Amino acid sequence: MLSNDRDDFLLSEINVTPFVDVMLVLLIIFMVTAPMMTQGVNVSLPEISSARPLPSEAKPVIVSVDSDGAAYINGRKTPPALFRRSLLRTVKDTGKREVFLKADRKVPYGAVARVISEIHEAGIVSLGIVALPSGRDAGKTDKGPARKK
């Protein structure tokens, strides 16, 4: 029996087309979802002269109060009845003992005082108030500038 030289070796190739397809689909998914993950609560912060930059630590716990008086914990809207429990869970999960409060300049003082009271009743003793330093644009909304302590 004579054998052909072509039959003596195996030709093995890796088909990369399915791999490239999967990578392109994952890229599109990440491109669509990434902006949603970094989105914050739009808050028009007041300006003060003694504002300092926020600490550069990774992901601080931020409580926001928007212009309608709704409270958010790290960008998630939280009903008033569940606020304290959600804050405690967030603080426990992140391991942070300091909370930063961002409140829109148009929010009545009573709504901000209620949120501050809930934060203190949750056992948080270190509370930073986030504000813009004087001289910045008055109508600018915040996603995380300076704070006043």
Oligomer: single chain
Order of helices and strands: HEEEEEHEHEE
DSSP strand count: 8
Shape: elongated
Structure description:
By secondary structure, this protein is of the alpha/beta class. It has a domain of 71 residues: Nucleotidyltransferase, domain 5 (2-Layer Sandwich). Helix content is 31%, strand content 21%. The chain contains three helices and eight strands; from the N terminus they run αβββββαβαββ. Strands 1, 2, 3, 4, 5, 6, 7 and 8 form an eight-stranded mixed sheet that branches. The longest helix is centred in the first third of the chain and has 21 residues. 18% of the residues are buried. One of its GO terms (molecular function) is transmembrane transporter activity. InterPro entries: ExbD. It comes from uncultured Desulfobacteraceae bacterium. Belongs to the ExbD/TolR family. One of its GO terms (biological process) is protein transport.
Short account of what is shown:
The termini are far apart.
Write the layout of secondary structure elements.
Layout: H1 17-37, E1 47-48, E2 52-53, E3 61-65, E4 71-73, E5 76-78, H2 83-94, E6 98-103, H3 109-121, E7 126-133, E8 146-148
Key traits:
alpha/beta; Nucleotidyltransferase, domain 5; 8-stranded mixed β-sheet; 3 helices; elongated; disordered C terminus
